[in-house]
Amino acid sequence: MKNRIFGIDVSLYQKGLDFERAAAEGVKYAVVKASESKFVDPEFENNYRRAKAAGLKVGAYHYLTATTDLEAVNCARYMIDKCLIGKVFEYPIFVDVEDASLKKLSKAEVTSIVTSFCTELEAEGYWAGFYTNLDWYRNHLDGAALAKRFSFWFAYWGSSCALDDAQMWQFGGNVNVLRPNVVAGFVCDQDYSFVDFPAKIAAKGLNGTKKTPVAPKPSDSMTALDVGDRVRLKPDAVVYGSSKRFASWVYESVLFVREISGNRVVVSVNKSGDVTGAVDRKYLVKA
């Protein structure tokens, strides 16, 4: 029997889910919805941070509505820029392929669109995969060919996985014949992973998992630090003016410099979102 690692996938519909309770119920990872078309899921940031704080491994997905290769590349860029940069993901970054708007296209066209999206992710250092169900796998795209190229997350709500090339299996949601359909009090899609993605992704240094910063060059010293620079915290970093440590996920993230006042540097996980905190510049290295 294949190794089965239990996880969930969530979006705005699970707003308020207690990830610590989910972890206590045996959940090991969460794949969180990041984006769709050109908007970010309203609960993405909360789901990512709360899952990390609960000690869960995290992946992400984009719901695909692009109907051309160029649109697919642009949507992948949007996902990367708005959702992925500065974060660490131990599970793949997936594209969810099931929207009715794509049914007007040929199998070859949909397959090409998915390939374009995933290839753009790979070009930026992410482990790419696609999600779909049995009908789409067989009738609306070349699922077997894509599964040889990218990680395949298979939606099939039954008692066993119907395809051998699936690396992850969404075995239930509203309907669940293997377990109760509720996790931490919420009706939730549930998954088994057959692959140790965290180990494989970390071994390749993908998805932001490469933790060893490049030593600053003399010309790259902290005296030359500018607003907008990408930085990482040193392992011994503490919140400015205190001995309090940051949340564990912050030490794994690429951060952006937002403000500089003497040795006090304000940083955040993206260029325009919520501020993460302030830190003494001695605790920063350029990413």
Describe this structure in words.
This protein has two domains: 200 residues, Glycosidases (TIM Barrel); 69 residues. The chain contains eight helices and 16 strands. About 4% of the residues have low confidence.
How do you describe this structure in short?
Helices cover 26% and strands 27% of the residues. By secondary structure, the chain is α/β, with parallel strands linked by helices.
Task: Give a quick set of tags describing it.
alpha/beta; 287 residues; 8 helices; 5-stranded antiparallel β-sheet; TIM Barrel; 2 domains; 8-stranded mixed beta barrel
Secondary-structure map with pairings?
Layout: E1 5-10, H1 19-24, E2 29-36, E3 39-40, H2 44-53, E4 57-63, H3 69-84, E5 93-96, H4 107-123, E6 128-133, H5 134-139, H6 143-149, E7 151-155, E8 168-172, E9 182-183, E10 186-187, E11 189-193, H7 197-204, E12 230-233, H8 248-251, E13 255-261, E14 264-268, E15 275-280, E16 284-286
Parallel strand pairs: 1-2, 2-4, 4-5, 5-6, 6-7, 7-8
Antiparallel strand pairs: 1-11, 2-3, 8-11, 9-10, 12-13, 12-16, 13-14, 14-15
Helix pairs in contact: 3-4
CATH class of the largest domain: Alpha Beta
What is the count of DSSP helices, taking H or I runs of 4+ residues?
8
Distance N terminus to C terminus? 42 Å
Q: Walk across the major sheet and give the strand order.
A: 1-2-4-5-6-7-8-11
Number of strands: 16
Share of helical residues: 25-40%
Mean pLDDT level: 92
Bulk shape:
globular
* Cα-atom radius of gyration: 20 Å
Largest sheet report: 8 strands, mixed, barrel
Q: According to CATH, what is the topology of the largest domain?
A: TIM Barrel
Q: Unreliable segments (pLDDT under 50, ≥5 consecutive)?
A: 212-223
Strand content of the residues, in percent?
A: 25-35%
